[in-house]
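Please, structure for the following, as tokens.
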Amino acid sequence: MSDVVVSKSLWGRLYNGQTSFDFYGKRRRGFGLSLALIVISIVSLFTRGVNLGIDFEGGVAWQVPASATMNVDAARSVLDDNGVETSSAKIQTLTSGTEEFIRIQVGDEPTEVRTAVQNQLAEEAGVSVDEVSVSSVSSSWGRTITEKAVRALIIFLVLVSMYIAWRFEWRMALAAILAMMHDVLVSVGIYSLTGFEVTPATIVAFLTILGFSLYDTIVVFDKVQDNVKRFSGTRVPVADIVNVSANQVLMRSLNTSIAAILPVLSLLVLGSGVFGAIALREFSLALLVGVTTGAYSSVFIATPLYAIFKEREPKFASLRGSHVTGTALQQMVVTGLPSGNRAVKRVEASSGEAQTADVSASAVLTHPPRPRKKRRR
């Protein structure tokens, strides 16, 4: 390490891969934050539920241009006039650029009711019938789509687990799957809290979240596997190995996350907020939350979980509970070698044993050596 100049600034250490963050030591804080988010998500799912779109619940949806005479109250009156239940109806005001629309979604209704509501909405808004769009999805079709989405998710998790267990080891597979489930649950919880509609585009975003979270975790695990082999001949705890690995790929993970978040923010802020593309809001929000939680879970959830699983092996069990921090950890990150303090202790211990052996050997000789007899010529 004497030949390596460590940057004094945090940015310099990040850029050069010289950080010494104790991810394993802060694991309880990471687990505590994740547990709080998961509890909030579960409570929200049981109390508020998820705002499922028409593609999953089934039903009929009308969309009509808003005007002075067509607003949410007018739309509700049209439903009442045609005998449509309004207590469970979803009536929203959507903005697309400079135009506003009223979107009405109800359960499945007969064809004559759909046509009557469409005609009355056009009359109230002062537009032609063609400008009032109608879309309908049967409840059975929506239920089929939901079942297929859940089935695809389960198959995906099983296949990914098998591949990671084959390519790396089962402990990494288990940690990666738990981290992915954490990301999806937190993302779904945020959707429940905000009340945003879950559409097929949202499901696509969730699958994208799984892919990104898995990629970021595999990057860290690949470095962990390399360092496990590197330190295989030394008595280095798993905590040190995962800390070194996470710090060595930290800048790469940050670059990947920032590069993914910037275009997603542009979709959310410009596409949804400025230009009024409401369809992009649900998709970009899921991506933003998923990318952020994926980068967080790869180093604060998946990596510490793997360390907890791995340190139960007989090889590492005796080293559990001890790991280096600060300068010693930074030395391991920069040089890829065991910490200097631990190496000094091993040398001192070995030299102390040698000295003890010398003292014990000299203690046996309690009398001066006998003189040799002279040989006769």
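The first strand starts at residue 51 and ends at 52. The mean pLDDT is 78.
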